Amino acid sequence: MECTVKWTGGEGMTFLAETGSGHVVAMDGAPEGGGRNLAPRPMEMMLLGAGGCAAYDVVVILRKSGQEIRGCEARLVAERAPTDPKVFTRIHFQFTVRGRGMKPNLVERAIKLSHDKYCSASAMLAKTAELSLGWELIED
């Protein structure tokens, strides 16, 4: 896996990242740090990656379990250290899973499997952050 991150130059703090699979993502800084608030911050991208990784796992696991999943949302709320390096210190993953006739125990199992075994992003962030999980199941 690889990526390239390039500063766009000028007065701002905008960066364009190109992934090894050929996708481009913009990142920018806050105005107080010289950015223009045009795109997500790099640390927000890390949080997005963890949420995407975990939600992906949950959908795959529930599909393999024969569940009729129709939606999966992961909302992450994070706290960071007050001093540099401002690593994540706490992250709460709140999942909202929608489906028809789904078994709550299988939803809980999928979320725990992602957290304990499959989500590489969560595993890395767990080195500095206390991770917590919550979930709700909505009959669709």
From TrEMBL:
Signal peptide: none annotated. Transmembrane segments: none annotated. InterPro entries: KH_dom-like_a/b (IPR015946), OsmC/Ohr_fam (IPR003718), OsmC/Ohrsf (IPR036102). It comes from the Bacteria. PANTHER family: PROTEIN YHFA (PTHR34352:SF1). This is Putative redox protein. It comes from Quisquiliibacterium transsilvanicum.
